[in-house]
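Now for today's protein.

===
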Amino acid sequence: MRGRVRLLGILILLVLALLWVRAAQLQLVEGEAFLAASEQQRLRVLGVPAPRGRIYSGDGETLATNRPAFVAQYLPSSEPLSDEQLQLLSELIETPAQTILEAIEKQAADRPYAPVDLKIDLTAEEYTRLMENLYQLPGVRVEAQPVRHYPEGSLAAHVLGYVLQIDERELDTFGDMSDRVYENRDVVGKAGIERTKEFNLQGWDGEVRAEVDAHMRLIDSVTGREPKPGDNVQLTIDSGLQRVAEDALQTVTDRLQEGHNPLPYDPETGRYVGLWDEGSFYPADSSDPSRRYEEATAGAAVALDVQSGAVLAMASYPDYDPNDFAVAPLHLSGTEGAREWEKAWSMLTDPAAGQPLLNRCVAQISPPGSTFKMVTAMAVLEYGGLSPTESKRCAGALEAFGQEYRCWTTHGSVELHRAIAESCNVYFYRAALSVGIDNLSNMAREFGFGQPSGIEGLPAGTESGGVRPDSTWKRETLGEMWYPGETLMAGIGQGYHAYTPLQMALYTSTLASGGERVKPFLVQRVVNTEGDVVWEMEPEVTHILSASDENIRYVQEGMEGAMEPRGTGYTRFIDYPQISPRTGDEVSVAGKTGTAEVGGIGERRDNHGWFVAYAPADDPEIAVASIIYHGGGGSMAAAPVVRAIMDSYFEIGAAPLPSTDDDITAGE
């Protein structure tokens, strides 16, 4: 009996010894690990997203800001959601239970204690339902987070760009380009200013160490770091001018598609009125009243400050609403938000929708047509061949190299001033032949054609340099020699020439300034949250024309003549000069029409309509270029857009304009 008691005592001592050893191991060896795990369960480090910096127009209007969005989150715990709780949560936020479960499991593999976003941007109904049932859902909470918001919708969308969730390539590179640590749920700029100024706009996230109970309900905030908002960016864009440009492009293209001459007229007086005034319409083609410009679905317009290069308006049509991108891609699959995003993305990328994401101002190149004739004029003045007072006869066509090269009308005896004003093709055929393609190309290079402008504010690679042809270009690109007949077409802006609306506006601005080509820019300054300017653009002259002031003045006078009687732009500015209520001074306009032929051999397509102008003619402030793709003649299609922009800039109320047959039938 005594032996049994002794054996039992030994066993008890062994058990106690084992327990003591295990306790010592837990406390001394593994104590720190268990303490950390315990603290991790009791204290959670929760990120506090920083709002992106705001984007303002040059006149102070908010174009991009942030709004609060309620987000349903799950804080992982040692006790996962039961099937019943998972099903309840699924019903409350209208998200498949399997989708919720997969999101939680995926997060657990990467960051086991980090919150899992289950649904972004809860509706008011979803928010109310969820808040009423949170007590049944351990680990589930509702958090307000900043979401990108564009209060003016599509206004300046191609300038602003949009934001989306960061991709793998950006995760690898952004960390090297910025001091900020980027994570795979971050939203970053993908286009426009949002992309270019990403590292200014993206703020620094904060964090809070929050105490939670066994059901992962927040008890108290222990310590934290406040989020730091991103810097604010001020653009050069004038919001009012931008609205006018965008509205004009849409209005003009709509009317051309309906078969209307874009400007309405008052049937009682038979006079044109403002673009948006009530009125009736002449047909777009008086020789065929049933004709409709059905392909005229797109256009672009750029307005520059002549002296500084600041972009006052940059409008591309069709456009899009960057709000569509703000949160939709962050929704889990299977949700209504995800379905809405798929639908929106499908529409935005559908070729039939007209490429609304394309910024045509900098990325689409087209033949400049007769707007290029000032380059040819400058070349012939500088490199010889024709004097400004020497006349050439236009009989409606030029016979050369076994072909007939036509003019849009018969001009008779023409010198330089009248050739520009009335856009005589025959004169410029002869001028181009007298200087040759290489001299013509050299002069075009001086105006910035054939190379990106280097515009400040748009991402690298966004801007096309266009095509500035010469004999070397053709040999290296096409493997063919240059033919003299091609020089004739190059002289009137046809053939291989292809440039962007921004290049056309910069070219016009260079002429207006007397030969100074400036660097265009969209961003005026960047300001931090304390109000300090951290970056500011300084105007930059990138080139000065190697042309005499006298020759530049000859060309300017030709553009002024285009706005006078018999000039191709006269009927659209027939009531100019006007007194500007803004300045009190008289405003006259200098400009040039252009009609660019498009389409391949045997293919008939409507021409592109161009119009370029600057004002005031005697002391230029603003230069504008506009194109309506497949809109017909520049006077009919593009000039009304430029007219609307000029009227807005100088605060001139559109006065009724006389209507004439010339306005409808002009070839340019």
Observations:
- The first strand starts at residue 43 and ends at 48.
- Residues 248-346+360-665 form a domain with the Beta-lactamase fold (CATH 3.40.710.10).
- Residues 34-40, 661-667 have pLDDT under 50 and may be disordered.
